[in-house]
């Protein structure tokens, strides 16, 4: 069972049309206090050269060309080379005027009229349907420039965009809404001075399933130095590299780490749960400030399934506390900053299980780096394998395979001398309470001295059972 309380740690922002607006980010392996890049939803185009913006609409205004003073707008008569004005056509021709031009002459003149040279193109193409709400739309003018352009949703909201410095292209600057049809209007002016209309539409995909994801640790938490970041998905995404590219972690101070895709415990309904986990090369430095940004709105997770919202989380790493748990010594040692601060007599899992039908090692405590993931002053521990249900105090869960550090007065005579438990680490009531009050979610418990090893079958957090080089191989970006 998963005791980790995974919470949604953020929500999408929205523009005036209630379309979510994520913050662009990448998924670096080495993290640092860098700000996300890319157009922020809700931004305007006030930085556009030679253009004004009215609620998303772009109107390009050029300087007016004034007529020469005193000219009255008339062109001067062309010179004939002598300084005198050229004679009128009537003076040049002394022949009688001919009759009106023939219809064939008019037709020839009409056919000779040139077409406007400006061309309009778009990516995605004008009229496209089922487009991604997060893929930018770019409209480009060939042999001309954009005069006006406007993209409007069904509610009349004008989508924000950016006009290029040369006025030849315009690109959306915010995400669009699922299932909406957007109408494009505007005008371009060609190199020949002729206007060409800009018009068309785009229709955004309508998901069959808008998938909600979660991130842990959640906002405001303080966690131990072994706590990985876990972005959970209700099923395995088809394009893991795409998802990973849009999730980032920023830390102060800078911390080296890597993302990895792992399968977590099933949900309450038995459905598989996948996680994009981030763990540092070594334990987090004490006091590290962590910011997680997952730009998942609009991303395709699978057939008909798209991200419902963007999520963020800001949390901190607490004091450096590590439990050294060597089963051969029948003790646990609590260290702060690498120095022992407490030692408690303990009894670990019994070395040999003598119950018929059981594996002889079923009762052994598993060796490996466990992570504290739940704490309860009172809890009932149930084991179908060993057929018991016992109420215990000061229970600190260190894996989801049923391993706890907890009080057990029934083994007080063996604590410090022999290992007799069903896999948990037993302490006296006083010692268990003292340890409980120093523990924190995310603390590492390093178990050694047994014949069995912690692994993926043992529950939610097994990220530290791999070397760092092995862990990096779980990244879809590598």
| Residue share in β-strands | 25-35%
Low-pLDDT stretches: 1-55, 62-99
Instruction: Order the strands across the largest sheet as they lie in space.
Output: 3-4-7-10-11
Number of helices: 5
- What proportion of the residues is helical, as a percent range? under 10%
* Backbone shape: elongated
Number of domains: 3
Radius of gyration from the alpha-carbon trace, in angstroms: 35 Å
Distance between the termini: 31 Å
State the name of the first-level CATH class of the largest domain.
Mainly Beta
Q: Biggest β-sheet: count, sense, barrel?
A: 5 strands, antiparallel
Q: Give the CATH topology of the largest domain.
A: L,D-transpeptidase catalytic domain-like
For the residues shown, what is the average pLDDT? 82
What's the β-strand tally?
A: 31
List the SSEs and their pairings.
Blueprint: E1 13-14, E2 20-21, E3 51-54, E4 57-60, H1 89-92, H2 103-111, E5 119-123, E6 138-142, E7 144-152, E8 161-163, E9 169-172, E10 181-190, E11 195-203, E12 209-211, E13 214-216, E14 222-223, E15 229-233, H3 240-245, E16 247-252, E17 257-264, E18 273-280, E19 289-294, E20 300-302, E21 305-307, E22 311-317, E23 321-326, E24 331-336, E25 339-345, E26 368-371, E27 374-383, E28 388-397, E29 404-407, E30 425-427, H4 429-436, E31 444-448, H5 468-472
